Amino acid sequence: MRKWIPLTAICLGTFMLLVDVSIVNVALPDMASDLHSSFTSLQWVVDMYALVLAALLMVVGALGDRLGHRRLYLVGLVVFAVASLACGLAPNAATLIAARAAQGIGGAAMLTSTTSLLNAAYQGRDRGTAFGIWGAVSGGAAAVGPVLGGVLTDQIDWRAIFYVNLPIAALAVVMTLRHLKNDQGHGRGRLDYAGAVAFTAFSGALVYALIEGADQGWGSGTVLTWLGVAVLALVGFVLVELRVADPLLDLSLLRNRSFVGLTLAALLVNAAAFAHLTYTGIWMQSVLGLSPIQAGLAICPLALAAFVVSGNNARIFHKAPPQVPVGLGLVLVGAGALLMTLVSPGSSWTATLPGLIVSGLGVGAAMPVMMSAALGSVPRERVGMASGVVNTGRQLGYALGIAVLGTIFANRIQTFVADNSHLADPHAAASALSGGRAQAVLAAVPADQRDTVQGLVHSAFATGLDRVYLVAGVTGVVAGLLVLALVRRGAPAPWEQKPQPAAAQAAPEPTQVP
Question: Which of 178, 352, 414, 504 could form a disulfide bond with 500, CB atoms 3.0-4.6 angstroms apart?
Answer without folding.
Answer: 504
